[in-house]
What does this fold into?
Amino acid sequence: MTELTELSAVEIAERVASRDVSAVEVAHAHLDRIAELNPALNAFLHVDTDGALAQARRVDAGEVEGALAGVPLALKDVIVTKGVPTTAGSKILEGWVPPYDATIVERMRDAGIVVLGKTNMDEFAMGSSTEHSAFGPSHNPWDLDRTPGGSGGGSSAAVAGNLAPLGIGTDTGGSIRQPGAVTGTVGVKPTYGGVSRYGLIAFSSSLDQAGPCARTVLDAALLHEVIGGHDARDSTSIDQPVPPVVAAARSGDVSGLRVGVVREFGGEGYQPGVTARFTEAVELLTSLGADVVEVSCPHFDYALPAYYLIAPSEASSNLARYDAMRYGLRVGDDGEASAEEVMAITRAAGFGPEVKRRIILGTYALSAGYYDAYYGQAQKVRTLITRDFEAAWQSVDVLVSPTTPTTAFKLGERLDDPLAMYLADLCTIPSNLYGGPAASVPCGLSDDGLPVGLQVMAPVMADDRLYSVMAAVERAKPWSQPTTPR
It folds into this structure.
């Protein structure tokens, strides 16, 4: 049964479809591996054994069909799931069981995908290491003393550790791509609005986007095709067909593709091994027929400060709903405290330090007298970054850069230095501010023996271009995960 956990999603689906193995057997194999390794990885917060086996039985009975029918998946705990505890990594939602499914969960169930459970994450997706989870950090299968990235470190650790062949993450400033880079997995942030946000617990509504995590490019494309598409329940959803991502992943043709190397993403502060692997990846694309040029996006240098005004501002508004009055944690209600006192006591007890930090920062940026000076200025910078992207698309088809400046850092190394932690998302944030698709694909190991990711960025609704580049790199640089955590 161990070999089943080492197969790709495509291979599992083929074996299930041919009746070579049952979906129930596949589910059991992955549930057994979770039981064995999750104590070390802390990738899953809740394992839905009954739900997974029930869905697997539906697949075996022919009740649901699809290209990924019978394939297990690890679901980030910021996605609402009916009847399954959903916490967003926070004590303030501990034990909350939603009464409905997010749209992407409905679509995955209809496609026969088997959701194994909910994965660990930085509280309300605020972090770059999963150390801000209220339930303890996740660990990187490549080195258990290192972070698997964040905020979706639980999903990336599960996929990299062969606990699941597929995962779902969410990306507000890089929280799919950065974990993908440091765990040697494929992580894709689709075009904003290309995948429904209905049922996604909000951090920053104008930036949040769910997307696939996988061990192969084709697996990610097939999952992208399942979860993508218009949803009338999401006002930000784009009413257009899903781009031909699967065809692009199967082709991997980059001949004639115009590739722009972002000048601003390199130099001081980048680990030498990361720079070396990135340079090799660019040379590889050139050898495969791509036309590579350097492109300047001058306002990318201001993306990080702009993001850390816009995202906390939206978070301060979104998290106001956790008021101890409707659902979630409620403490301090001794019959004598006022509603305001109960709210204050509950929020103090339920939110962790990073969430409190961002709520305070966002509330300040939105306050009277400071709105124009901070939030308003950040939105102007966002417009300039969008213009940088639009100018780049006049001369190139995609942009590339390292996904992260460094490989996975050690747990605890940046926990007391928020600014150092924020720099992990230096290269990923511009695409969120713009709204276009971006992805990370493994491109080798750094000198420290840890994975390095190549980031690919594309115009809005040109998600298929990401998959062409990633597939080309993947085929030229065959990749494998460690079979056991170390």
